[in-house]
Fold this protein.
Amino acid sequence: MKAATRKKVLAIFMVLMMVTVAFVVAVSALT
């Protein structure tokens, strides 16, 4: 259970990082 929770948190963190990077790239491209 603890391992599964950690895996889920890690997946969410990776998605957030990807979204943040994509947002920064988009802003950099627009400006």
Q: What stands out?
A: The first helix runs from residue 2 to 30. The helical segments are 2-30.
